[in-house]
């Protein structure tokens, strides 16, 4: 006798999708529903009572997939999604993807199988086609920090390139000509976009030449990675006077490396971070940083996802956010 798993396997969909079709859920695409129904007929599958109750009650769970919830950036994202969820009587289920395709896929599939009403996905390792397939399987999926062609109305993202350009431009405008970049070693689009913004700012202001080379170092996007990268840059480039860092956590590590070597921030070396996370306000000196409005973005993602799951109109608000530079005390004119 055929089982619900047999139907899912033959139709090329998840068990959760078959369950939604059985229960007449509006979240399933018509073409997918037709395929599942044909497969059920072909296999002679008859839904039992357990299958019919899988989605018979409206779920109040919101699934959230992030890289690592222990990271302060993603912790803030989850916190602000939870705030909106709580206000509307929902609760969260969380999956970690660790910027690995297999882990991201597993996290999304697990949340779908757990019958979450809506999904907020931060994915950097899965390709666009895979995410499009998931969005067809689950009709209330919203993507954060990602722009997927064809799904623009479900994407909430920041212009990483513009943020990096602003940070580098600020250092150049202060008179710095030996400006370095500390980047993440993770092979994700944020890394590429921020590096490109840094390089284009140098080229736009004609800073780079034989005497002013591009100076970059890459490591894990945490305090230790920032510290190691800064140590390498200082060893290789003694004239370096400013550094733009991939995120605030790496900037904190870079500042530690500098002070441990008796360099003063910003008198000897200016430092700019990215994210404007809580740590930026409590470092000494306070860190100049590119603001990543993750609170607003996470709240919008939660509202849009809940609206999709309830088949209500989404807010008429664009998901494209523009970064701003928050100037504090970690940047000064070069000493020479």
Automatic annotation (TrEMBL):
Keywords: DNA-binding, Transcription, Transcription regulation. GO terms for molecular function: DNA-binding transcription factor activity; transcription cis-regulatory region binding. The keyword Iron-sulfur does not apply. The keyword Transcription regulation applies. InterPro entries: HTH_LacI (IPR000843), LacI/GalR-like_sensor (IPR046335), Lambda_DNA-bd_dom_sf (IPR010982), Peripla_BP_I (IPR028082). Residues 2-56 form the HTH lacI-type domain. Residues 310-336 are annotated as: Disordered. Coiled coil: none annotated. This is HTH-type transcriptional regulator GalR. SMART domains: HTH_LACI.
């Amino acid at each position: 006798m055929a089982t619900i798993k047999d139907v899912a396997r033959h139709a090329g969909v998840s068990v959760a999708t078959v369950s939604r079709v059985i229960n007449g859920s509006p979240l399933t695409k018509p073409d997918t529903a037709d395929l599942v129904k044909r497969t059920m007929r072909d296999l002679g599958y008859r839904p039992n009572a357990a299958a019919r109750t899988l989605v018979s009650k409206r779920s109040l769970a919101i699934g959230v997939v992030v890289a690592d919830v222990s990271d302060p950036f993603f912790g803030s994202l989850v916190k602000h999604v939870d705030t909106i969820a709580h206000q509307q009587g929902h609760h969260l289920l969380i999956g970690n993807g660790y910027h690995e395709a297999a882990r991201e896929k597993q996290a999304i599939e697990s949340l779908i199988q757990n019958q979450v009403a809506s999904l907020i996905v931060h994915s950097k390792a899965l390709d666009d086609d895979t995410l499009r397939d998931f969005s067809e399987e689950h009709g209330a999926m919203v993507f954060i920090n990602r722009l997927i062609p064809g799904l623009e109305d479900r994407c909430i993202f920041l212009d990483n390139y513009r943020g990096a350009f602003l940070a580098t431009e600020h250092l150049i405008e202060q008179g710095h000509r030996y400006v370095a970049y500390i980047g993440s070693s993770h092979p994700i689009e944020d890394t590429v976009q921020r590096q490109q913004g840094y390089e284009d700012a140098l080229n736009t202001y004609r800073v780079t030449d034989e005497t002013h080379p591009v100076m970059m170092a890459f490591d894990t996007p945490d305090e230790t990675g920032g510290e190691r990268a800064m140590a390498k840059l200082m060893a290789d480039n003694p004239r370096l006077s400013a550094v733009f860092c991939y995120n605030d956590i790496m900037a904190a590590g870079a500042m530690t490396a500098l002070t441990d070597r008796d360099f003063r921030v910003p008198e000897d070396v200016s430092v700019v971070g990215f994210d404007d996370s809580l740590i930026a306000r409590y470092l000494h000196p306070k860190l100049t940083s590119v603001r990543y409005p993750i609170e607003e973005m996470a709240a919008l993602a939660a509202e849009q996802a809940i609206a999709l799951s309830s088949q209500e109109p989404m807010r008429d608000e664009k998901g494209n956010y523009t970064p701003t530079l928050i100037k504090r005390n970690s940047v000064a004119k070069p000493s020479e």
